[in-house]
Sequence to fold (248 residues):
Amino acid sequence: MPQTTPTRIALITGASRGIGACAARRIAAQGRQVVLVSRSEGPLEEVAATIRNDGGLACVRCCDVNDHLALARMIEEVAEEFGRLDILVNNAGLTRDNLLLRMTDDEFDQVIHVNLRSAFVACRTALRPMMRNRFGRIINISSVAGVVGNYGQTNYSSAKAGLIGLTKTIAKEMASKGITANAVAPGFIDTAMTVNLPQQVKDWAKSVTPLKRFGQPDEVAAAIAFLASDDSAYITGQVLAVDGGMTM
Ligand code: NAP
Fold:
């Protein structure tokens, strides 16, 4: 009797829109069961419906990743329900921009908690079921801001640089367990996160990007899906820039 491979389970945070929603669609198209996570049930259900319409497997979990206990519990429950957890994409993120001299402790902490501490908690929780199966793919969504810094983003740049350190350390600690960890560092991408940037910032961003345009969320999702796939088996601890050449 030929052995059937069990369906891999992929959990994607921040999957209600933007880069996360596109990544969920692409990973589902690879035949994975995707678990879509964010705070808003309606938009998550809409993304799940499009995936099911295309013949994919998707379910929804409402969770504020800022509630670190709830996040860990939700990941444990998903791993228990499906009997495994193979792919984790830490994509939920937000910005609270301000010049350093004006930035409040609260603005700094909020961005660190949602972008970085949640990823640490999610990775620590997901690693147990991954280690049991001796297979795992962790993809952390960093940013060019974490690589080269950015005006008005000391909080965000610190969180995104932290994600790179987290990723490389997990890659070293977990390589012997069959688990890889990589980061994706997008440049300026057309999503809700950048839509309200002042026009002069948008013009500046295009001027310093060799491809002279913003990226599309699906262009970042393509890199995420590659790193989640079996084709990336020999790649770990890397930061893949999807930035139109901005940081080359
Ligand atoms: P987006 O359209 O604003 O999406 C952000 C996602 O994160 C949403 O699904 C949002 O869902 C979720 N989220 C935010 N806070 C959350 C919380 N506390 N708990 C759970 N989910 C939360 O932004 P995007 O551009 O797609 O960004 C995705 C990732 O790429 C982020 O990590 C961002 O930092 C990174 N990135 C973006 C750019 C860019 O130019 N757009 C560049 C570099 C890096 P709900 O609001 O439904 O909870």
In short: The chain has one domain: 9-241. The mean pLDDT is 97.
